[in-house]
Amino acid sequence: QMQLVESGGGLVQVGGSLRLSCAASRGTFSTHAMGWFRQAPAKEREFVAAVRRSSGTTYYADSVKGRFTISRDNANNTVYLQIDSLKSVDTAVYYCAASSAYSSTNSYYARPQAYNYWGQGTQVTVSS
């Protein structure tokens, strides 16, 4: 079973930047689409971004377009989430996830049900 470990979270001021990393092990990373989700206190988990396994095509939630960038490094089994221009509303636990499923529709990867494996999460706190 694939294991995912997130890192890079922390406390940052409004307008700052963070780069989250998610390292995968015990699986074939390159055959999985990868996604990032987040969950704020008292809110449901929400989709942030995804990157396809082969084409590297990316897909973002409207709320983060232009500020978040997802990328993957198949040689190092790692997916990244660059977060710029942080806002207070970005405060949440950020989770990475891996999906072995294939869909021709990008929006498929916005669903938590599309993912087989999840990391434990990393906390991002944005202070004003």
Helix count equals: 0
Task: Note poorly predicted spans.
Answer: none
Q: What's the overall average pLDDT, rounded?
A: 95
Taking the alpha carbons of the first and last residues, their distance comes to 40 Å
Global outline: globular
Q: How many β-strand stretches?
A: 11
What is the share of helical residues?
Answer: under 10%
- Rg from Cα: 14 Å
Q: What share of the residues does DSSP label as strand, in percent?
A: over 45%
| Class by alpha and beta content | mainly beta
Largest sheet: 7 strands, mixed
Helices and strands, in order, run as EEEEEEEEEEE
Briefly, what is this?
The protein is an all-beta fold.
Sum up the structure in keywords.
single chain, 128 residues, mainly beta, seven-stranded mixed sheet, four-stranded antiparallel sheet, 11 strands, 0% helix
